[in-house]
Amino acid sequence: MTMKHTLALSVGALALSGLLAQQLRLPNQKDSFHFAVIGDTGTGARAQYEVGAKLAEFHKLFPFDTVVMMGDNLYGGQKTRDFEKKFEEPYKPLLSQGVKFYASLGNHDDAAQRSYKLFNMGGERYFTVKPRPGIRFFALDSNYMDKPQLTWLEKELDSSGSDWKIAFFHHPLYSSGGAHGSDVQLRAILEPIFVKHKVALVLSGHDHFYERIKPQKGIYYFVIGGSAKLREGNVKKSEFTAASFDTDNSFVLMEIEGDTLNFQAISRTGETVDSGTLRRAVLEGKPANGGK
């Protein structure tokens, strides 16, 4: 390789870094907790690979070591080659750098996925993980919200002691989707538990788009189900829609520092479609910034 080619590559890398820096709208503090959210991913098609590549680009500037998955992790076949084509290959750059993915089960998922090592489910349909002090995720199986799971959830929430309790699962309690929309029955079961135990953030998928919900009873809700599948034009904006995006695939980056959650929803092509700051203090009846 000539010096001319080396210089051209260096300039290209710097240009890409500068472009991403302009696109990133998160504080990107050194000691804050960074994570990414993807949902309804397991197609093995071009859009999934493109979203995976964009995630890897942003990871260079905004390093995160955690990705939470909203279910429908594999559509269709779920054999060894399917796990490779629909998960390992699209996210290979992140997996090779030690990024951990934590999956929840969607209605298209075989329950046997809970034993797949790279989904980090520990062989369970529902589980909890504490990435750092003060922050705990609760992955639920919204396909079968049975009594043992609810008993487990109450116990884990009650004993967690975390400031940020974050639940994630497939079926959204609030959604303006024309295809599915809000799971009202599930909401009647889970919302009282979330309110009682001061869950701060709830993440779901199922509807194939992005939607941020206005705070409901002191809880922030996001629908993030368009990271490979897409139902274009499917958001039927409702009284609880704060922001939405249904014209391309997307993912979300999030950053927690103290009582503040910063978020940035990004399209397959790198366009920022929503961003803002949410404050956990809303749980104490104080006003919060609902995004910008």
Report how far the terminal alpha carbons are from each other: 46 Å
CATH superfamily heading = Metallo-dependent phosphatases
For the record, the CATH architecture stands as 4-Layer Sandwich
Low-confidence stretches: 3-15, 282-292
The helix tally amounts to 6
| Total separate domains | 1
CATH domain class: Alpha Beta
Arrangement of strands in the largest sheet = 4-5-6-7-9-8-10
What percent strand? 25-35%
Computed structural class: alpha/beta
- The value of Rg in angstroms is 19 Å
What is the averaged pLDDT score? 91
Outline the biggest β-sheet.
7 strands, mixed
Structural description of this entry:
The protein is α/β, with parallel strands linked by helices. It has one domain (30-284): Purple Acid Phosphatase, chain A, domain 2, CATH 3.60.21. The chain is built from six helices and 13 strands. The chain has helices at residues 3-23, 46-61, 80-88, 92-95, 147-160, 184-196; strands at 33-38, 66-69, 100-103, 127-132, 135-139, 164-168, 201-204, 210-216, 219-224, 241-245, 250-257, 260-267, 272-279. The strands form two sheets. Strands 4-5-6-7-9-8-10 form a seven-stranded mixed sheet, with helices on one face. The protein has a six-stranded mixed sheet with strand order 3-2-1-11-12-13, with no helix packed on it. The longest helix has 21 residues, at 3-23. The protein is globular and about 40 Å long.
